[in-house]
Amino acid sequence: MKLPMVFPFLLAALPFVAGAEERHLGPHVHGQASVNVSVQDPAVDVEISLPGHDAVGFEHPPRSSQERAAVERATATLQGASWLVPAPGASCTLASAKVTPHGFGGAAEPGGHADFDAEYRYTCKKVNALTHLDVRLAVVFPAVQKVVVSTITASGSNQQTLQGPATGVDLEP
Amino acid sequence: MKLFYLTLKSMRQRKGGVALTVFTVALSVFLLLGVERVRTDARLGFASTVSGTDLLVGARSGPVNLLLYSIFHIGEATNNITWKSYQDIRAMPEVAWTVPLSLGDSHRGFRVMGTSVDFFVHYHYGRGNALAFFAGKPFTDLYDAVIGAEVARQLHYKVGDRIVLSHGLGGANLATHADKPFRISGIMAPTGTPVDATIAVSLEAIEAIHVDWHAGVRLPGMETSAEQARHMDLTPKAITAALVGLHSRLSAFAVQSAINDYPEEPLLSVLPGVALGELWHLVGTAESALRVVSLMVLLVGISGMLTALLGMLGERRREMAVLRAVGASTRTVFALLVTESTLLTVAGMLAGVALLDAVTVLAHDYLLATVGLVIDQTPAPGEWPLLAVVLALGSLAGCIPGWVAYRRSLADGLQVRL
């Protein structure tokens, strides 16, 4: 989530928050990763949320060196963005990548779960040629059963679900 | 070339039969492609009921539920959105525009929707089509109303007519807002969307007709006249849902989650395309039904076509025998028959496609106005494989009598049978 941009909005809620306890809990489905893709020429933003269970097999701060290595490996894999391949014709280059593990540090997350969140920004020379994306999350993290991909492009919003060996996501730029 | 010439000459001798066969093939192709096009366009039309809107915001329920009550006007909202929350969303820096939607009242079975004039600017449907006015203009006065094409057609209203809105969904209790009648300021052109069956008034008007109402009943003794209401504070307290447009699509998911996590009120924001897709999954049985119809039409159409072709070619056994007698090889005879059936099929296909195009052009407005279906003039992608199947089967149909002629002895065709 782009905090700085929505900050004024959250700020407006602050006085209220101070008075009452707030309890919000988002969904968390093991085996299911969610990917959001938004396209606005020339930028393509991709954000994902991957349950810790599917990325490393546990959802608590690492207790052994193996677990620590697993978290680092998963973070590095996500950071590398090799699992995401935009249509080659669009000439996209990765401009930035940011991976944030939640719930693997000291403090437990509300709900007791842990996730990996990641944000990517691509810059594409020919956005019009970006007709599909290859999302290979389930290949890189075999525990992922289902990838729900939401897209928003100039032609509207859509949702596609990848299951089994499927990796192709259609985009209408 | 000689073969082709011979086929044409032969066909000229049998004009009536040829015309009938081409007509039968054309009808089959017309039916096949027509059903396919209706199926595709019904889905497309549905999927683009709302376009150009980045987010749809309502009280927290489910995406399909929100879409049903706010856009399709089916069922009721679980909750309203308070005006304060709406103002907060409006004030977000990423938000370019918002259009409020306030539902609840009706007029003779049609839903009344309170909104702002921005609705006519920002609500798009189909491939980015804006709302157009068939007559009149958007509301300018407090007691102006804009009606959809279906409302105008069924109730025979025209610009300038006066209407009285009913409280809630109307019915037998006769709770009307008779003290504050509305004037129709505009009639929208048909869109094929739920907007056609909607009466749009301003949000302030919704407030104005409810100033004397409290907790669902009209307060006894309180009678604010239409004129007095004009001078009151008509800021709404709540709305049902809102359409949101963003400066950049890149912020869509961030704004969506900010609205979904809004701490003061449980709100839900959805991407309209995603919700429409989900809803289509639910009502997708209708599409499957059309698919089955399409398949049945395919079977009937193809067998009709084959019958016509086979009947036509069967008549030519004698001709073939004569050709063989004057020295044509069996291969020539076979080629002749296949050429003819292919020619007939191609002619039938062209006629069928032309017929379909003519019908879609002529019936476009009628279908839109009466059943709200937008039929596109461009062929659906599924039509090409169908045409290929028709062509292949048509050519294959020529092979059957061709094979028979190839196998039969000369005597069979030359024998005089009584």
From TrEMBL, chain B:
* Keyword Protease appears in the UniProt entry: no
Against InterPro entries, the record matches this protein to: ABC-4/HrtB_transporter (IPR051125), ABC3_permease_C (IPR003838), MacB_PCD (IPR025857)
User: Any coiled-coil ranges, and where?
Assistant: none
Q: Where is the ABC3 transporter permease C-terminal domain?
A: 292-407
Span-the-membrane segments of this chain are 292-313, 334-364, 384-406
Which coarse location class describes where this protein primarily resides? membrane
Specify the MacB-like periplasmic core domain's residue ranges. Answer: 19-208
UniProt GO cellular component terms: plasma membrane
Q: Where in the cell is it found?
A: Cell membrane
Q: Name one Pfam family in it.
A: MacB_PCD
Q: Which keywords fit this entry according to its UniProt record?
A: Cell membrane, Membrane, Transmembrane, Transmembrane helix
What protein name does the entry list? Peptide ABC transporter permease
Q: What is the lineage of its organism?
A: Bacteria, Pseudomonadati, Pseudomonadota, Gammaproteobacteria, Lysobacterales
